[in-house]
């Protein structure tokens, strides 16, 4: 996966995703943020939380300490995304850049994300869209059709997850969709020159066929049923209930006089 992201189409994809993460996560506040996977991009660069970690899903080979463009990549820890080593409701933001596509169990990964997120915490997910020109090229190569290139264009993932399918998964876990954006409408070209020829398709695609972009970026908010935010005025004044009240009788006492016979 790292080798592919260093290719021209990989850098084209990373540039778009970097811009999406910066716009979507710059104003997400909290204390703890976690990026799981893909050290070639710093998805938390624009975020201002005091504690931010990069977690790798597999150790890097010896001598491979540099990521894209020679940038030093230093993951804070290596862990299994299906078993996050964090306490329940302890993370404010989790970023999954193509993590679900290469996870052995994407359902378990999302369940773990839901477990470690606080109420109103956010998850940001970047993925490849199977309903796109890139997805069509990959599908033809996997089926070994005579039309097109026999070599897969994209890295071999466990499964490319469509955005509508991912939204159903998140809805079942009580996540509420906050934003969804698409990008990278250029054809599946391997060279920088080939991608530059179709630069106009990014402008046309954003206007005429946005859902067919090669990549998507999704942000969802965890909503916990039954949770109630406690503020300064969390105690309400008691409402008086109508009840009978006894009233003292202040009438003057009645005097009786006896008549003489």
> Do you know the CATH architecture?
3-Layer(aba) Sandwich
Considering DSSP H and I runs of 4 or more, what fraction of the residues is helical?
25-40%
Biggest beta sheet summary: 7 strands, mixed
Shape: globular
The overall pLDDT, averaged over residues, is 81
Number of E strands: 7
User: Count of DSSP helices?
Assistant: 7
Uncertain ranges: 62-73
Radius of gyration (CA) equals: 30 Å
SSE pattern, N- to C-terminal:
HHEEEEHEHHEHHE
CATH class: Alpha Beta
Total discrete domains: 1
* CATH topology heading: Rossmann fold
CATH superfamily, please?
Answer: Vaccinia Virus protein VP39
The secondary-structure class comes to: alpha/beta
Strand content: 15-25%
End-to-end Cα distance? 125 Å
Main-sheet strand order equals 3-2-1-4-5-7-6
Account of the 3D structure:
By secondary structure, the protein is of the alpha/beta class. It has a single domain, classed as Vaccinia Virus protein VP39 (Rossmann fold), CATH 3.40.50.150. The chain has 7 helices and 7 strands; from the N terminus they run H-H-E-E-E-E-H-E-H-H-E-H-H-E. It has helices at 2-5, 8-25, 106-116, 133-143, 163-172, 192-197, 200-208; strands at residues 32-36, 51-56, 77-78, 91-97, 117-128, 175-183, 215-222. Strands 3-2-1-4-5-7-6 form a 7-stranded mixed sheet, with helices on both faces. The termini are far apart. The model is unreliable at 62-73 (pLDDT under 50).
